[in-house]
Amino acid sequence: xxxxxxxxxxxxxxxxxxxxxxxxxxxxxxxxxxxxxxxxxxxxxxxxxxxxxxxxxxxxxxxxxxxxxxxxxxxxxxxxxxxxxxxxxxxxxxxxxxxxxxxxxxxxxxxxxxxxxxxxxxxxxxxxxxxxxxxxxxxxxxxxxxxxxxxxxxxxxxxxxxxxxxxxxxxxxxxxxxxxxxxxxxxxxxxxxxxxxxxxxxxxxxxxxxxxxxxxxxxxxxxxxxxxxxxxxxxxxxxxxxxxxxxxxxxxxxxxxxxxxxxxxxxxxxxxxxxxxxxxxxxxxxxxxxxxxxxxxxxxxxxxxxxxxxxxxxxxxxxxxxxxxxxxxxxxxxxxxxxxxxxxxxxxxxxxxxxxxxxxxxxxxxxxxxxxxxxxxxxxxxxxxxxxxxxxxxxxxxxxxxxxxxxxxxxxxxxxxxxxxxxxxxxxxxxxxxxxxxxxxxxxxxxxxxxxxxxxxxxxxxxxxxxxxxxxxxxxxxxxxxxxxxxxxxxxxxxxxxxxxxxxxxxxxxxxxxxxxxxxxxxxxxxxxxxxxxxxxxxxxxxxxxxxxxxxxxxxxxxxxxxxxxxxxxx
Length: 571
Known about the structure:
Layout: H1 7-65, H2 71-83, E1 94-97, E2 102-104, H3 127-138, E3 140-148, E4 155-165, E5 170-177, H4 178-229, H5 246-300, H6 307-363, H7 368-415, H8 420-459, H9 463-526, H10 532-567
Antiparallel strand pairs: 1-2, 1-5, 3-4, 4-5
């Protein structure tokens, strides 16, 4: 399905797959996990804040038990301390009992002392009754309802944490408005998505740059292969390898191959031209020999003297002409072999082209992009490590704060009565420090899960290694084909050398024939009469010369055909 798809399209599909996988992981797992962690941290914060108020009550209750204060004095002191406690500027702690009746409220003093059994929010929910129920069942818990924000007259959804102080029958509680929590969570979501979007944008730019570079270089290889498939070697010198990677090596191999083929074609053209010229000269010479032989046949009837010498000379000429015929036949056979060798070279070039096409198809799966994706995953891992370091720093800081709180408690105990209130606050600081350390460990665990998910995504790209191995095998096969082409070129040069030697032999034979014909002419001048046997020999000589002329004509035709075959190459 994907064999005919361009590499640029494949890389785009790959990026979209990684993009969608990461977005799904982010939206389905990472962001919900972070939101859950934030909500748990808020709940722990509410618990810790209420525990501060509980510690105040415990401290006053101890003063009551020791007899230093009456119950009413201790309760009044605790209510005033808690009434003035604030966090986040306007958030507060209130006190009601199990009736339920409002014991103390920092902003709605009109509710103090009132029975809250029938107090409902705008939805009809009896919130204080629900608080009493959950405290009776579990001792503590969270309740959601609607309540008026301080300094405003509007009602907002609110989540409160309540816990009982059994010695006085009190229920202490504080809460957070859900819209504030949602706004904080949305800010965190937006931050995560902005960072993710920036990383994905950078990745997209990197992939686009690499894709365009690969497309340009593969297009150059494709153009060169097209030129070679059409026997056009005139423009291959314009191509140059601009890189040392696999594509650059293929381009360099193409350039080298085209240069070698150009050299071979030039040599073949030169040899073919020489053979063609020699064949034309031999044809002309053979025709002249035939004409001379005919003239000799006409004159033999008048030649008598020297007939025996003439017969011997003609016999020798016949032998030389036979040798010439054999040499010409050798040339013909060698040229046939040379033609077959050229065809084999052409076939091997086609095989090399098919392997290069296979190389190109496998190169579509080359995963240079894998390195970029791996860098992206490494960056995520580094970011997780940085956050882990921050979490570790928070843990160490919490330990330091815990130690300082412990020292403060010791100093407060040394101060006696005057330092008891400070000791309570120091104890609460120490508890808050422990809670902070626990939260930091939870964040570290969550980051470990995120790192494992990133590693899982990275493992999905191992298939690219197998594709690279396939690419190496195809490259080796391509090198073997090139070696075969060189070997065939060497064989072609050897055969052309043999043709040259055969042509030389033919030339020497023609020289001998010319000398013998001269002897025949000399002897013919001395011959007075011709015999029937001499006439018959002369006729045989004429037929042989005509055969030689015909053979030379065939050789000329073959040389012309070979020249036309070579002309299809443009150099």
